[in-house]
Amino acid sequence: MPSDAALATPAVATTGASTAAAPVLRVSGLSVEYRTARGVVHALDDVSFELAPGETLGIVGESGCGKSTLARAVVRLLDPSAGTIRLGDTDITHASRRRMRAARRDLQMVLQDPAASLDPRWTVGDLLAEPLEIHGIGSRAERRARVADLLGKVGLPPEAAQRRPHEFSGGQRQRIGIARALALEPKVVVLDEPVSALDVSVQAQILNLLTDLQRTLGVSFLFIGHDLSVVEHISDRVAVMYLGRIVELGGRDSLWRRPAHPYTRALLDAAPRIDDGAAPPGPGLTGDTPSPYELPSGCRFHTRCPIAADLCRREAPATRALSPGHLVACHFAEGGTPPSG
Amino acid sequence: MSDPVSREPVLAVDGLSIGFQTRRGLLPAVRELSFSVRSGEMLAIVGESGCGKSLTALALLGLVPPPGRVTGGTVRLEGRDLLALDEAALRRVRGARISMIFQEPMTALNPVLTVGEQIMEAILEHEPVSRKAARGRALALLERVRIPDPERRFAEYPHRLSGGMRQRVMIAMALAGAPAVLVADEPTTALDVTIQAQILGLIDELRREQGTAVVFITHDLGVVSRYVDRVLVMYAGRKVEERGTRDLFADPLHPYTRGLIAAQPRAGAGPAGAERQRLAEIPGTVPALAAMPAGCAFAPRCALADERCVQAVPPARRAGSGLVACHHAGETHAV
Fold first, then answer.
1. What is the pLDDT along chain A (341 residues), one digit of tens a residue?
2. Could you say which of A20, A232, A287, B127 is the most buried, measured as most Cβ atoms within 10 Å of its Cβ?
3. Chain B contacts of A270, Cβ < 8 Å?
4. Is there a domain that residue A150 lies in?
């Protein structure tokens, strides 16, 4: 796969963020392949982005777009087949288990179902102290104090330390999951659909908590989600994925107000919002997302795209900048000129 | 307005109560719920987990699973009380006059029968037609729910289909008996947003063209605002507000409804470059069934609550085009 010049230029990818500081996370040309009985799945193909300190980058897309694969590859739960992942100055793409353990101080993850990621036999206090123990941080007493401090940060009472995860509601369990991810004061937290299983009133509590924590701790979030309203709300910049690729990436204002990729526009049209009123929905996309085993030629979106032309069936579009920090991979994106040929 | 017949509700629920039989006694899950739907109308029942909306949906078809049971009220479908029917009579009504689609079609589809056989079965259950005629009807239904290449899909097993296609098959089966009422319990919650739009568009089209009344169970206010005529908001087993959709979003009256709407992130809201706003939160959590407050169930989380709210359940009162159950509704909206 050709690497995209626009995405490989760090200056372009970071201009959307307000800060000029060095990125805490740099993902470049990342690809992941699964080998299965049915063949090879290209789950992630040539994905590049950077994450600035204190920034939230949202990753949004539908089933099979590769967003969860991306989350797991970034924290090295999956091995990439190509590309690099740099955490600060360290290349962790092929880091050994031991080196990854050290890297996890700065790189943590929160999953959708906190119950599944929390051992039910442990008390919440043990769960929060474990990462500190693994990294040999503090004395027992200091760790206990740190656990109480963490519980306070996520809005739980100190007594919660003596209880077990199943005694808590879904929203409270997600608070525990977030506290555990923050125990080592990481620079980056990857959040994979962290509010998808929650009711809207609880979802609001968790989104507010994440906003507050980011302001006080300066942590960066890579926020994976499928709900556009949620991702827009929490993110400074948003990347839209389709079939393993980033098709558009931009500051949330420009992406939501001037979506350039036809897929982004279709996603925004399809997602009903409460201030829609009785606005009739647009024509919408027809058909299903193609199977990742049989990726379409050229632009992967061409089979469902309302403006697809011959060129799109032949050639995969390169990623280009429409404006500083607003990238799109479409031959005919609004504001762009179709390349010759 | 035009057709006087359509003003008569096709489904009328009155005082429906559902409880769970436990060792600690009967826990009330749905209490004195009343609503009605007319032909061609789409009514949404919205609320968060545990509010009783899915249990209500099941009760409309006489499908409340034990230890739950209906403890009171009536469900009148075209004038006949379904709760008074025996199982055999209910079975004749289900699928023929009222049918249901679920969030997960796979739980309702038979994995060892082809799509076509299942739709034919649904047709043959209610009509004494030949298998050949049933086959033709099944193919027509597949076409009706916009399944491409129906002849081929007819012979396929459910697991070969995508989630969106399975939901279309479910809808085709639900329509087999040309029911007067379609109950849809979170039918698009498991689907991607572009597929959700296709399915909701299909349901909307069916009720407009065939006059099917739709009872739509959902937690998604966005979906409600785009497709639904009237909304019933449930909290802790009771109806707290029922309004025309436009009125509900323009001027929600119950503090819980206001909280729900304010808690919803709104993409593209506010001026460009604006600081990220905090969302409005509803403090606390829903009360447990076993610890339901004596008065208004929302009182412990409500900024307007006073002594009266703690003491007495607020009755549903008329509010413009709708109903609201709040002692403080109609007072100032400031919370």
1. 444 444 433 333 444 444 468 999 999 999 999 888 888 889 999 999 999 999 999 999 998 899 999 999 999 999 999 999 999 999 999 999 999 999 999 999 999 876 677 788 999 999 999 999 999 999 999 999 999 999 999 999 999 999 998 888 889 999 999 999 999 999 999 999 999 989 999 999 999 999 999 999 999 999 999 999 999 999 999 999 999 999 999 998 889 889 999 999 999 888 887 765 555 556 678 888 888 888 999 999 999 999 999 999 999 999 999 999 999 999 998 644 444 43
2. A232
3. 193-194, 196-197
4. no
Domain that residue A41 falls in: 5-106+186-328
Contacting residues for B231 by C-beta, under 8 A, at least 6 apart? B43, B44, B46, B224, B241, B242, B243, B244, B245, B248
What is the number of domains present in chain A? 1
Amino acid at B79: G
For B201, the closest of A200, A278, A281 (CB atoms) is A281
**Considering the domain boundaries, does residue A30 fall inside one?**
yes
Question: Does residue A179 sit in helix, strand or coil?
Answer: helix
B142, amino acid identity: L
Is A69 domain-assigned?
Answer: yes
A288 CB neighbours in chain B (<8 A) are 162, 164-165, 195
Residues 6+ apart with CB under 8 A from B250: none
The HSE-up count of residue B47 (CA atoms within 13 Å, CB side) is: 25
Is A301 in contact with A309 (CB distance < 8 Å)?
no
- Would you say residue A270 lies in a domain? yes
Partner-chain contact B225 A272, CB within 8 Å: yes
Q: Do A278 and B249 touch (CB under 8 A)?
A: no
CATH, residue A254: 3.40.50.300
Q: Which of A199, A207, A274 sits opposite B225 (nearest CB)?
A: A274
A113 interface with B at CB cutoff 8 Å: no
